[in-house]
Amino acid sequence: MASRVRSQSMSSREVMFTTRWNSFQRSSSTSTCRVTSLHLLEDGYPACRGAKRSRRPGLALKVIPSGELVHRLGRGGLRGGLVSYPGGMIETMFEGVGAGGLLDAMRDAQRAERRDTARRLLAMGRFTQQRLADAGDEHGNWCVDDWEAIAAEIAAQLGWSRQRASSQMNQGVTLLERLPRLAEVFAAGEVDPWIITVSVYRTGLLVDPDALAAVDALLAEQAPYWNARSRERVAELIDWIVVQHDPDAVRQATQAEVDRHIGFAPDINGMTDIYGSVRATAAAALDARLNAMAATACRHDPRTTTQRRTAARWRFRDRR
Questions:
Q1: Do 108 and 242 sit in the same domain of this protein?
Q2: Do 251 and 273 reside in the same domain of the chain?
Q3: CA-CA distance, 291 to 116, in Å (whole number)?
Q4: Do residues 31 and 64 both lie within one domain?
Q5: Residue 307 is part of which domain span?
Q6: What is the pTM of this model?
Q7: How far is CA 237 from CA 128, 240, 250, 267, in A?
Q8: Has residue 80 been placed in a domain?
Q9: For strand 46-49 and strand 69-70, is the pairing parallel, antiparallel, or unpaired?
Q10: Under 8 Å between Cβ of 135 and 146
Q11: How far apart are CA 203 and CA 232, in angstroms?
Q12: C-alpha torsion sign, points 106, 109, 114, 115
């Protein structure tokens, strides 16, 4: 039964406010109103849409949503009180909470979010271990192997893509099998999930058990202090830890690879210079393609090879 609060008399007629969203009845012998949908006005009070208007002028229909503090609706309006409901409304979630309380709520919610994420990842890792153990090596050489089948199962359960499920399966298994001490810190809510993602990747080439255990211990000790740092800085810190124990296990990306670019510099004569830096394999393939296209021109074409290559470049662009 929905909780109900009776107002003071309004124009000598009693009005009933109910927490039921689908029905609202005014205690009147002349009319009965049914609410089909609700919306909140700017003043915070809900008004009913789709309801029949009262036959008597001056009587507005009001419905108090569950958990919202009931305010006075003007002269002779509803007395203050709470409509009983176990949930509460977003508008009143932090009612009466000061700045300090809000900061505490942020901190507690952050730690809870980290713990929940850790629990999900570790559950995915354990589920993957169990499924792989049950399957054995029967499907190891299949195009869709057991790992892919498990990823599809998790993706269906969580409403994710298979690729995302596979990535987080790898994180969960890595935490259980390779970085258990870091996993404990993560499960305690001390580390942001993105640090776990970086840690799993940057330590992926470690194969020596002793080096891996030492790196795991250092990560568990230092990672809680990295939450405010940038992703690039955290990657550098992890690489520094790895190189101290196994220099060959550091993932390296040259600065030239990072700095690849293509640029255009307009000239005053209506032309534009093109410059940039790309991979050598890509440049060689493009160079060969331009030479091949330039060679297809008519032998009586008065343009030079360089001019034909330039024209071929833009023909190649238009074809793509």
A1: yes
A2: no
A3: 58
A4: yes
A5: 263-319
A6: 0.56
A7: 30, 5, 11, 44
A8: yes
A9: unpaired
A10: yes
A11: 15
A12: positive
